[in-house]
Amino acid sequence: MITATLGPKGTFSHEAALKFNPKAKIIFTETIREIFELVGKKKADFGIVPVENSIAGSIGQTLDYLNKFNVKIHAEEVLQINHNLAGFGPISDIKTLYVHPQTKEQCSEFIIRNFRNAEIVQTSSNSKSAELVSNAKHKSKGAIIPLMSSKIYGLKIIKTNVQDNKFNFTRFFILGKADSKKAKNPKTGILVRPSNDMPGLLYGLLGEFAKRKINLTKIESRPAKGKLGDYVFYIDFAGHRKEKRIRGLLDAIAKNFHVKVFGSYQRKY
Amino acid sequence: MITATLGPKGTFSHEAALKFNPKAKIIFTETIREIFELVGKKKADFGIVPVENSIAGSIGQTLDYLNKFNVKIHAEEVLQINHNLAGFGPISDIKTLYVHPQTKEQCSEFIIRNFRNAEIVQTSSNSKSAELVSNAKHKSKGAIIPLMSSKIYGLKIIKTNVQDNKFNFTRFFILGKADSKKAKNPKTGILVRPSNDMPGLLYGLLGEFAKRKINLTKIESRPAKGKLGDYVFYIDFAGHRKEKRIRGLLDAIAKNFHVKVFGSYQRKY
């Protein structure tokens, strides 16, 4: 089995791919788009893409490509994101800290507290930060990286969990050519495009959920391509598309909206 | 007047700051958090923060810091995001292309079409890409950067608008200690925290908007800190918090939800 995920080795996407299937052959890509292409063209059986991070927010590209490409949501994975200070020596010896800008933003309090007088070098990825310290092999250099990067590059963990907000998780979709026909505790993902203005329409849409007591787990408006102020809605809700009440819901929505069903899958959180 | 924005010079945030007030003294920060701190402590009069990009999605940090810090939304700005190929020579001479990972994702089709055989070097910012080409001063090096970076670093624009999706805009909030007391075509931003499960509550919440014919321009669920599956809603809608019908709306919502009003401001798109 072949899975595609964002590289390089040691990314959180790599970790999510291993969590989904530790034995699969992994193709590492440079962009999210390539993952959709590989699954769409059946060059990979599954593709692992980030959907949302509890701090950074939703990944719009993933939502937009779901709409654009002919792939389904087969499953989801949720990873707790922990950043670690890694290197060769104690924290007080580190004079140069390598850190990716997003990681830096997530660890800003820790960096301000401990590295006021150090040189902070921004890198293009967490793996790059690890590689630079690994190559230097000196206790004056440190990096803030995922656990997996520290293992791949042979760095010692000096301090774990250095992010400001300990509540930091990323949700991934496992893309495939089919969704999960059966799933325990299922969820379904859809896109809804209203035909005109929002207030009454969105209210009517949610009424279809409310009267069937179907629980929404995510709703997000996204700008519809081509015009500012026009929106589509990405909605996740509890239930499988094959259940009778969900079929009733989808039929009712389809009368007034354009709907695309991305698939049903097992809920993981 | 002092404004704070994300640096370094030449970022889209810098451009948004100049659009808001071309004469202000600008403080460049390294993180979004610092901007909230500077405005909260009155060390800057205004702070410019990105809220959402039409391709990359919402910036969760900005939404979360709005909830955490004591600042208001004073105004919004919207910038069209254009990426450009810049350097010293024709496109066919470029053997090394410097590009920030997010920019690379947004220009993936152009890069695949034109740089199959070139070395792609990922950088930590668009300004860094420009700086590297500027220092090399050689036609074999190119960068994909905003127009403003090319001006600051003295690079020639070789091809404009090289992003895959021409519909690419970023929305910024101008933060201040007060919102706009008067605004033409006003919008208001709020956060709503339901006290328990979503289906009926969100429906009831939207009913308050629908029955007053108040138009929503954005709705987004965000994980409430501390528990997976618990959500808060960020909502933008048409109208000023001082209007009678908006006061009625906010009073009605406050009966069943925790509400925080971030302020009213002039709609820019």
**The CATH topology of the largest domain in chain A:** D-Maltodextrin-Binding Protein, domain 2
Number of strands of chain A: 15
Number of helices of chain A: 9
The CATH architecture of the largest domain in chain A: 3-Layer(aba) Sandwich
Largest interface: A-B, 58 and 59 residues
Return the structural class of chain A: alpha/beta
Percent of residues in beta strands of chain A: 25-35%
Helicity of chain A, as a percent range: 25-40%
State the CATH superfamily name of the largest domain in chain A. Periplasmic binding protein-like II
Rounded to the nearest angstrom, the radius of gyration of chain A is 21 Å
Summarize the main sheet of chain A.
6 strands, mixed
| CATH class category label of the largest domain in chain A | Alpha Beta
> How many discrete structural domains of chain A?
3
Termini separation of chain A: 26 Å
| Shape summary of chain A | elongated
Give the overall average pLDDT of chain A: 90
- Catalogue the unreliable spans of chain A: none
Question: Helix and strand succession of chain A?
Answer: EHEHEEHEEEHHEHEHEEEHEEHE
| Multimeric organization | homodimer
